[in-house]
Design goal:
alpha/beta; four-stranded parallel beta sheet; 18% strand; globular
Length: 208
């Protein structure tokens, strides 16, 4: 049983390896890291990389992957749509998180990269359906620059500070995988949702 993971940054590999070891021992992971997918999606839109995503995932399926998980929120929707032609489940890491958030009335979405907001808001709207959900967005200034420079602590500290500045919300959503560990640095009493653990759990179930 092997799950293919499509990443746009190598820093996500140890995150999901650790979650696998803790929550899903025995699950084989095959990591596909292509940073250029996010670069192109930011420049030209997520659909610009749909062909390459399908080709990469088709290769993983041909080599034995029974399911795939896209860990990049910006291109997750495009990856999901590839399932129809691949014949195996293809999941986006943030869907379980979005489903949980959409059950609440007031949602605040934090992001460090603006290209993530459109796909994340569309996903929340899809999961909310007819339920009235008020969604607000907060861009964490400077955090993406820290992430790109390899300053993980600086990025997480800025995200945590932005989380703690939110007061009027029922739930706070951390839109990107790279933000997840900021949860341990916050003092807020508002529930804070991140995507790696629930996303991997859903993908592991699909791979079985």
């Amino acid at each position: 049983m092997t799950l293919a993971l499509l990443h746009t940054s190598p820093v996500h590999v140890p995150v999901f390896d650790a979650l696998r070891d803790t929550d899903h021992p025995g699950l084989g992971l095959r990591h596909l890291v292509y940073e250029d997918l996010l670069t192109r999606a930011r420049e030209s839109g997520p659909e610009a990389v749909s062909g390459k995503i399908r080709a990469l995932l088709a290769g993983a399926v041909a080599e034995g992957a029974s399911a795939a998980l896209c860990t990049c929120s910006t291109i997750g929707g495009v990856a999901e749509s590839a399932a129809a032609t691949l014949g195996v489940p293809v999941l986006r890491v943030d869907r379980p998180m979005a489903a949980a958030a959409a059950e609440r009335e007031r949602v605040v979405v934090l992001a460090t990269e603006s290209a993530t907001l459109g796909p994340t808001l569309a996903l929340l709207a899809e999961e909310a359906g007819d339920r009235p959900v008020e969604v607000r967005t907060v861009m964490v200034d400077g955090a993406w620059a820290c992430f790109e420079a390899g300053d993980r602590d600086g990025c997480l500290d800025l995200v945590a500070a932005a989380v703690d500045a939110v007061t009027d919300a029922d739930v706070i959503v951390l839109a990107q995988v790279s933000m997840a560990d900021a949860v341990t640095r916050t003092a807020t009493r508002i529930p804070v949702l991140s995507s790696p653990r629930p996303g991997l759990a859903a993908a592991a179930a699909a791979a079985r």
